[in-house]
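Figure 3 (text version): structure tokens given as input.
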């Protein structure tokens, strides 16, 4: 199925979704009823995700990154207590979107403005537990490098899961996000 077809099919439902792309540093520096009765559609989860504040910021940028996933490269260095990774693109516009998305998400964490990302269980866990890990970023000419670490072994697992999830998003784009939503597992 073509990316455009997938996007059109789900665009009304999730017209803005997450893709907190953080890519690996080494590569970057080197160059049943059929209906939806629960889960994503129940409670305030969908309302939170689709709120105006999210659609204008992280969700909008996330959708742009899904559309440009083929232009994105990732590399991650796994540390005993977290990760250092870089997300880059040779397309200056895509590189700017990557930077803006990470900066926006880190700002939300600093302001304690979590919301539920149904397609990213790891991002939801990170947004809901901002004091359980440390994060920083460094702008690169072609993207961004992030460092995320924790002294909590369970949070380190979440950090690792998020890095792997972002790898799938960058590699496969929208289909990877849809698998994440349907599976909703880390």
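Below: residues designed for each position.
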């Amino acid at each position: 199925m073509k990316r455009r077809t997938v996007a059109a099919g789900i665009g009304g439902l999730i017209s803005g979704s997450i893709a907190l792309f953080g890519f690996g540093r080494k590569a970057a520096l080197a160059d049943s009823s059929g209906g939806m009765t629960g889960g994503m559609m129940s409670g305030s989860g969908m309302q939170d995700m689709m709120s105006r504040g999210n659609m204008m910021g992280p969700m909008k940028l996330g959708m742009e990154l899904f559309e440009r996933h083929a232009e994105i490269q990732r590399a991650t260095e796994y540390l005993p207590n977290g990760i250092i990774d870089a997300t880059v693109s040779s397309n200056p516009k895509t590189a700017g979107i990557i930077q803006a998305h990470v900066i926006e998400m880190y700002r939300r964490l600093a302001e304690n403005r979590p919301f539920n990302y149904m397609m990213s269980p790891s991002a939801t866990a990170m947004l809901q537990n901002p004091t359980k890990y440390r994060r920083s970023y460094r702008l690169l000419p072609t993207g961004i490098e992030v460092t995320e670490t924790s002294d909590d072994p369970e949070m380190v697992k979440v950090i690792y899961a998020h890095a792997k999830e972002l790898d799938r998003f960058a590699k496969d784009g929208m289909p990877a996000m849809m698998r994440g939503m349907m599976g909703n597992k880390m």
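Residues 153-172 form the longest helix (20 residues).
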